[in-house]
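Changelog note: in this version the structure field was regenerated for every chain. One regenerated record is shown below for reference.
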Amino acid sequence: MQKKTQALLASYATFKELYSQGNYRSPYQILAEFVKYIVKEENLYTVFDSQIKILMRQYFEFDLPLAVIRTTLSKIDGFSAKNKEEFNIDLEKINIDKVSSLRSDVEKHNNQIFEKLLKYANANNVQKSNDEIVSAFVSYLIDGNTDSPLQNFISAFIIKHENDEQFRNQLQNIREGGILYVGISYGISEYGSIKKDLTLFLNTEILFGLMGYNGTVFKELAEDFYSLVKTANIKEKKIHLKYFEVTKLEIDRFFNAAKEIIKGKGRNDGSPAMCNILNGCESVTDIEEKSADFYYRLQYSYGITIDEKKDYYSNQSEWSIALGEEDIEKLDFTEEELAYAKKAIDNINVLRKGKLFKTTEYLDAGYFFITDAKKTFDMSRHFIEKENTDITKYCEFALSLSKITNILWYKLNRGFTNKKFPKNINSILKAQIVLSSFSTQEVGKAYKKYEQEYHDGLITEDQLAYRLIVLQEKSVCPEELNSNNVDDLIDFSDEAIKKVEKSILEKNQKIQEQEDALSQIKAELQIRNNDYDKLQKENERLKIFENKDKKRKIIRKKIKNIFLFSLIILVILSVSIGAAYGLYCIISNLNSVVATFVSIAIGIIGIVLGPFLIRIKKIYNSFFKDKK
């Protein structure tokens, strides 16, 4: 088994290397290189198409329709048709050096990856055989819907090596070679356009992806798919995008849950979609506006409308999936999961009128449910198995977004024109998506578990709050996963949750201690500021008092000067009046000699009083100047 799976990876990678290095215009020319390798190794001179079909499976694990084999054989130089089924071969014209060299290099690089894988498994105590681990790894790379229990382990292994360029390139070659092979194995022979109408019913996560609710990566993948739909519909609308009524009910429940959270009656489960819906909303009206905008953009930006068909079971109940107790037990669905998945698959089966289509008739099936929900895939496979058919030979009712993208990409001949592969081929991206989806599912389970423990009184409200914080940190978009955090983010064991819970509690305690210390410092600073304010006020009061005292002194001095000035004026007036009167009396009674003497005496007195009067004038001027 391990050799077969390793051979398939080597074939895919070789196919991609030939595609990259050669000037091939169609996949048949690349297949021709593999056919030449076989006939040279087997030393065949004549061959039947059915024989090549068997040998392609033995050598390369390629399982191809006979029509593809015949077309390939007819295009090989050195092959000549004897009839419709048999060909003669001129081995002299067959050269296999290119394929031999490429396949040798590819196997070498693949073996290095297997060694790293098994070493990583041993370090993580994976209880599986080497064959089982390698087989799971191969299935993971080539099957988008694998449900292996090792899926998360393999995703973590890939992300852990995201910085290893050689590792990354080799996985990319395998994935890109796979998509090129898929188109051939599905018998897609006409390229360039979609000839028949195809109606695709999109599930909730795909619609949320288009709106960016689940993060950047999911939006890019959804836009990648939508761009192919637009290309297919350029000349004539052949692909119709719709969603079922049951999907609308699920979307409405999501928005209603957001309303309850806004009202304070519900808790945020931490999923990226719920966080993005709540982002920027403060009221129920905000949620209602976002819901209305969601449906408006679906219809008018993307042309996605609700399914108008209502009477799925009025006359066609025989096409509904009948499930017994044994079926329900095998599927292991919750009641809600069972009802939703059954409704979606039933609807597709009714639209197909109960007909099963082979994998070579993918685009003839007409109707598909596009989802990334594992439960719906399980229901689809279960229904096909109940019809006692080989599931590998028939196309499903539900396809993943990556699978329908790849089919459209191949059908529109994008690989052999611009050679730009779909984004979903990136193996690192696939690993991030797988683990992000796992994380979201585990967060939902843990959320319900801790809510129940709280209601049962097993944990306190504070413990519940801390654990919900832990869950919100673990619910991440794909782009947030990297080699540094992947181990912690996907560990949902009770020990891991409690460890993170304890870490958050300790962190919060430290923050609280820092806040308390800061509050104490602020209080001390406030006291010092208050003391300083008091001192400032006291200084201001003293300054006011000093200014008032200074003014009082100035006023007292001025009053004193006024009094002195007034007194001097009064004295001068009194002396002057007395002198004048006395002079009058003397002059009137004395003779001229005496009068002359008296006049001289008065003059001398005036001279003596002059400086004193000048001083009085200065005092007077100073007083009135200060007053002014």
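Spot check on this record: The longest helix spans residues 494-589. The two ends are 117 Å apart (CA to CA).
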